[in-house]
């Protein structure tokens, strides 16, 4: 049971047709139907609909990806079960991220996952100014995903695939696990129960990219919360960190899980390489001239609704 702001990791069925990569390790490709608010498969060129409840993310490139954010202005922690997809392009029947929302994006390709992280003004996606966000995942308190019916595809392996494990955290960061091996399962590499640790712990990397749009290769990180301890005969052992929290079960009995000592940093920060810079990303749709503001509650980009921790940052987590 996750009462904390949550992460997104998901189970979805492969719906691609011809694929460049056809053999995926167990646990990587999801086997199910799309959520009921979603189109049956990722679709480009769908109509603008800023009241859409579709929850299908595609994570393909620095200028073609989607995020989860609230349908109306409200805290992530209050809306994680019904957040909706917002995409950089018109696709998936989803809402469109207004041009100018994102001030920097880094799209990272590794041998184990793709990851997209970014900075921006997420009040335009209905996230109150100062909200610390949360973590979305395909499991959730009800076992059917945060948000319920949320799904994720990527075409990074050569054709559209629905991936089983993905995660997305504050300010924002999103990982889609595209393979696995005997050392790291997709579930471990997209582990989603460290929702208070933040992007830089869960998805370490170069975060110094605001006001830049880039596509990079990168080393594979250790799975979130994993620390190598020893290597014997070529096999590495790990210690793992579990976030501490207390709760009350449905039987009314209090419980405590996790470690009381929280590590300050991941074991290492993977370095990026071969970065290609794009001047900016844009869908070219003048939403305002169509009478549509980014935030459907009527809030404007310049009108933060609430002040939070006073950090001056907007956080997004899906
Ligand atoms: C979509 O997400 C649901 C969980 O909400 C999951 O059960 C299902 O397998 C996913 N479907 C696809 C095609 O990924
Ligand atoms: C917009 O999305 C909403 C909710 O998903 C749906 O009810 C409505 O029909 C959509 N509008 C159009 C024009 O597709
Ligand atoms: C959002 O969360 C903050 C911090 O938990 C809380 O103080 C605030 O009242 C919440 N705002 C809304 C609109 O729920
Ligand atoms: C992935 O999607 C992008 C559109 O964002 C498209 O340009 C590209 O050709 C697609 N790649 C494959 C292999 O389908
Ligand atoms: C699994 O993949 C990781 C990351 O690519 C790699 O470091 C590790 O050696 C691989 N393990 C095996 C058994 O191939
Ligand atoms: C990113 O840069 C923009 C200016 O383009 C700035 O307003 C914003 O505060 C920066 N974000 C962070 C997290 O530093």
TrEMBL record:
Keywords: Signal
Annotated region described as Disordered, given as residue ranges: 297-318
Signal found in the keyword field: yes
Annotated signal sequence range: 1-20
The protein's name in its UniProt record: Immunoreactive mannoprotein MP88
Organism: Collybia nuda
């Amino acid at each position: 049971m996750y009462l904390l702001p949550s992460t997104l990791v998901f189970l979805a069925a492969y719906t691609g047709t011809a694929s460049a990569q056809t053999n995926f390790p167990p646990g990587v490709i999801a086997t199910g139907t799309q959520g009921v608010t979603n189109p049956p498969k990722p679709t480009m060129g769908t109509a603008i609909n800023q009241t859409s409840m579709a929850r299908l993310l595609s994570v393909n490139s620095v200028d073609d990806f989607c995020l989860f954010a609230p349908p109306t202005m409200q805290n992530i922690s209050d809306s994680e079960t019904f957040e909706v997809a917002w995409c950089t392009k018109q696709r998936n029947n989803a809402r469109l991220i207004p041009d100018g929302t994102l001030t920097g994006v880094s799209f990272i390709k590794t041998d184990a996952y793709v990851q997209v992280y970014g900075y921006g003004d997420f009040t335009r996606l209905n996230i109150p100014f100062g909200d610390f966000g949360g973590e979305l995942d395909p499991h959730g308190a009800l076992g059917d995903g945060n948000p319920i019916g949320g799904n994720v595809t990527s075409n990074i392996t050569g054709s559209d695939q629905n991936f089983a494990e993905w995660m997305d955290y504050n300010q924002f960061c999103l990982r889609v696990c595209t393979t696995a091996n005997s050392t790291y399962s997709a579930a471990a590499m997209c582990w989603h129960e460290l929702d208070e640790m933040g992007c830089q712990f869960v998805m370490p990397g170069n975060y110094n990219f605001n006001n830049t749009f880039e596509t990079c290769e990168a080393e594979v990180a250790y799975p979130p919360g994993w620390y190598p301890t020893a290597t014997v005969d070529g096999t590495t052992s790990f210690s793992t960190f579990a976030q501490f929290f207390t709760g009350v079960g449905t039987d009314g009995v209090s419980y405590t899980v996790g470690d009381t000592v929280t590590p300050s940093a991941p074991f290492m920060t993977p370095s990026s390489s071969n970065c290609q810079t794009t001047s900016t990303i844009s869908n070219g749709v003048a939403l305002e001239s169509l009478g549509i503001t980014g935030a459907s509650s009527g809030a404007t980009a310049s009108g933060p609704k609430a002040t939070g921790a006073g950090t001056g940052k907007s956080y997004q987590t899906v």
